[in-house]
Amino acid sequence: MTMYESSAYPVWPVHEQTLVFDVTHNRQVCAFDERVLLPVGATIELYDEDKNAHGTATVVRVRMLNGSGKGRNQICLDVETDDRWWDAHPVRGV
Is 21 exposed, middle or buried (0-12, 13-18, 19+ CB in 10 A)? Predict the structure, then answer.
């Protein structure tokens, strides 16, 4: 016996992007054009061609961001990013 009838399965639209967010610096690192679920502890290698900047980000948490009437649900990978990445991407106006 299943929990739901086949016509009553919970379904939600998931945005086709994945947000990568640095929890230490409270800043968005990047967004992937696909839904990407990486496990905690996974390493993302970062490269910014415009600034010739390299860095790494380590996944510390995976979240589902609840959408609203104006936006869709979205996957968020919370990461800790090494300082060399942010050295090349300073906060504007600081």
Answer: buried
Q: How far is CA 67 from CA 23, 26, 42, 73, 74, in A?
A: 20, 20, 25, 4, 7
Distance CA 57, CA 34 (A): 18
The secondary element (H helix, E strand) that includes residue 89 is none
HSE (side-chain half, CA atoms, 13 Å) at 80: 5
CA–CA gap between residue 42 and residue 58 (Å, rounded): 6
Tell me the pLDDT tens digit for each residue of 34-61: 888 999 999 999 999 999 999 999 999 9
Residues 73 and 13 sit within 8 Å (Cβ to Cβ) = yes
Task: Please give the model's pTM, rounded to 2 decimal places.
Answer: 0.77
